[in-house]
């Protein structure tokens, strides 16, 4: 059974940092490119945030987070990461990891507020 379990969210002040993790089970994690998405409000479409190739050699970031966020993975641990620095209130969202062809996890809430 495929599972993607996001963690590491929380409440942080503007300018702060968080590192999100996504633990993957039930499929060959190292064979899949992975992505992070976020939903900034209920009913709003999920927004793509970052992508990483199966080996981790290639990454892409949305313009809105470029220079502040970093995507990484550890294939030995079947875990995907999103390092978020210089957080802004507009980064407030539920963050999700995604593998192509599989469903969504429950997400992890990130709230940036003073």
Which class of secondary structure composition applies to the elements?
Answer: mainly beta
Give the topology string: H per helix, E per strand: EEEEEEEEEE
Report the radius of gyration as a whole number of Å. 13 Å
Share of residues in helices: under 10%
Terminus-to-terminus distance: 40 Å
**How many strands, which pairing sense, and closed or not: the largest β-sheet?**
6 strands, mixed
Total count of helical runs of at least 4 residues? 0
How many strands in all? Answer: 10
Mean pLDDT: 97
Q: What does the oligomeric state look like here?
A: single chain
Major sheet: order of its strands?
2-10-9-4-5-6
Shape: globular
Sheet-strand content, in percent, reads over 45%
| Spans of at least 5 consecutive residues with low confidence | none
Provide structural commentary.
The chain has no helices and ten strands. It is mostly beta strands and 114 residues long. The strands form two sheets. It has a six-stranded mixed beta sheet with strand order 2-10-9-4-5-6, with no helix packed on it. A four-stranded antiparallel beta sheet has the order 1-3-8-7, with no helix packed on it. The model has no long low-confidence stretch (mean pLDDT 97).
């Amino acid at each position: 059974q495929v599972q993607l379990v996001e963690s590491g969210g929380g409440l942080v002040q503007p300018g702060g940092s968080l590192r999100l993790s996504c633990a993957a089970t039930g499929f060959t994690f190292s064979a899949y490119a992975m992505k992070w998405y976020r939903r900034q409000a209920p009913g709003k479409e999920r927004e793509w945030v970052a992508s990483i190739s199966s080996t981790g050699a290639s990454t892409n970031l949305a313009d809105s987070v470029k220079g502040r966020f970093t995507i990484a993975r550890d294939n030995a641990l079947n875990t995907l990461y999103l390092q978020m620095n210089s957080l802004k209130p507009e980064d407030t969202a539920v963050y999700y990891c995604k593998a192509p062809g599989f469903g969504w996890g429950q997400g992890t809430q990130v709230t940036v507020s003073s």
